[in-house]
Write a structure and sequence with these properties.
By secondary structure, the protein is of the alpha+beta class. It contains 19 helices and 28 strands. The model has no long low-confidence stretch (mean pLDDT 96).
Length: 610
Amino acid sequence: MLNPKRFQTYDLDADPANCAPRLAALRKAMAAQKLDGFIIPRGDAHQGEYVAPRDERLSWLTGFTGSAGAAIAMADKAAIFVDGRYTLQVRDQVDLSLYAVHHLVEDPPHEWLARMVQKGQRIGFDPWMHSQSALETLERAVRGAGGELVPVARNPVDEAWPDQPEAPLAPVDPHPMSFAGEAASAKRERVGQAIAKAKADAAVLTLPESIAWLLNIRGGDVSHVPLPHSFAILGADGQVDLFLDPRKVTPGLDAHLGNGVRRRAPDEFTTALADLGAAGKRVLADPATAASFIFDALTKARATIVRGADPCLLPKACKNEIEIEGMRNAHIRDGVAISRYLRWVTAEGAAGRISEIEACEKLEDFRRETGALRDLSFDSISGSGPNGAIVHYRVTRKTDRKLKSGEIFLIDSGGQYQDGTTDITRTVALGAPTAEQKDRFTRVLKGHIALAMAVFPEGTSGAQLDVLARMPLWEAGLDYDHGTGHGVGAYLSVHEGPQNISKKPVIQPLMPGMICSNEPGYYKTGGYGIRVENLIVVREAKPVPGAERKMLCFETITLAPIDLELVEASMLTAAEREWLNAYHARVRATLGPHMSGADAAWLTHATRAV
């Protein structure tokens, strides 16, 4: 083992037996506050996907460890809400005699409340744990049912949780210009101009990734994502008040922040919101990402609230050329590690010598050998056979199983490097695949290629392209219940908005510099899972003779072999075959000089022409 401290752990507190005593403790705390119900989202005061152990309230209460979900506890009933990625996982982790399972999108919490709340009932919520827009939806449902939505000063889950972890205090460091590509002062000025254009005097920033990008800083308050928990108020003049725990400050940070940033204690944030109102300021706040507490504080202070998107989201998503080049370099480094790993896992897995956990640890070792790995970008999804069909499966010591010949193995993983974030999924055959497995894999690959080859007019959203990746599966009556692509940050969050590629009617156009994943899949419950994922960058397409519109395309930056043993070549069109051969030729030419011996020989064979 290269390093005894692993980035990924495999011990989870997800025992369904814990559900009953913890739900009982919550109900006791609810009764003390005269609440008939309480809403528990998965999230924190920053409304982010990634939360610190202290904020894993949903997981502690229910045992569910997925990255998205919610629960509602009433005195006599309870429900948990998960999306399509977690329909199998939730049934393994949660006591279903206590919680009814509902689809987070198709039967969301507010619709459940509209059916279940009785007249006069008081339903509690923590105003720091819900965005303003989410709260307004809940409020309409509860009020419509004759109930009352009640903010709590003390979260009853916290009261019921006897050994709740402390808040994180990871150090905050400067992110060098050599990787950021733009000075923080220039970003502050640019975003400040956008605030002024929105006819606001200041903007409240609550997303740690927005603050990290804006000020060129990185932290470590949550697993796998270099985020510093903090809040900020950015003025239209480019001046910033940064509310950051002083215990996180590292030597040189204040000099890096400069005179345009005033560092303040976190407990001054509420006062600063009141001061904005007292000064008669117009304040931009994002109802989709800012906690309802912030809207309440601004309203109470009589500030004029300008509702609008976080002004950092779009400029952060549109990477500059330095960031894109850093991402390319990170993917070359990561691609070498992945390729060496694929040779190893295919041989060892087919021989039945390794388990899913051992497969995870070996991949971490290969990435560590690059000498540049800062962390994983998320817990690796290492699923063999039926576990591969669990879309966001996270292996634990309880679920760990041996890889076996005749099965399919799916590995979805990523690395955090100072110059970029990676996210890649490869599916490999352990021994000879079946005709069905080859058919399904090739359909997934055809969809992946269709999206990778897309050329589309400026102004096109990811929702308009999603069908390209699904069509080969639809033709066989198949589909997958997750998005085709999500945005990815540059040494930031592996899931980044505002862009995505999915069925969701997101109207955000894809713009040059945006980075997305391209990851169609297929999952046979109890059998196997298939996913092929590369990261793609939105670029300007070569001019088309006679074109009347500016066209965009994708550049694939992930480099690693796609398992040709799973490809049914007869199903590929000439154009698809050409794309696959060209991609593998680029993988071989780019990664080959960094590999030697058996690894290099394997790469040559793995990237042979079809």
